Amino acid sequence: MSSKQGGKAKPLKQPKAQQKEYDETDLANLQKKKEEEKALKELRTKAQKGGALGGAGLKKSGKK
C-alpha cells in the first residue's frame, strides 16, 4: 500500500492575532508617528525631484 502523501505539505495555520486595545496616549503616539512618516515621505519625493530643500547652495563667483 502506498501512502497518499505527495507534493508539498501544507503549513500549519497560524493563530489569528488578537486585537490590541489602545488607550488615548497610545493612539496619540500612533497618530504622531504616522504624521512624521508622512512628512519624511514628502521630503524624500521633493529630494528626488531635485528641488531645493531650503539652502542657498554654492554660488560661483564667475571669475576665472
Automatic annotation (TrEMBL):
Q: Which InterPro entries does the entry link to?
A: TMA7
Q: What is this protein called?
A: Translation machinery associated TMA7
**TM annotation in the entry:** none
UniProt biased composition (Low complexity): 1-17
Q: Which Pfam families match?
A: TMA7
- Where in the sequence does UniProt note compositional bias of the Basic and acidic residues kind? 32-45
Tell me the organism: Papaver somniferum
Q: Where is this region: Disordered?
A: 1-64
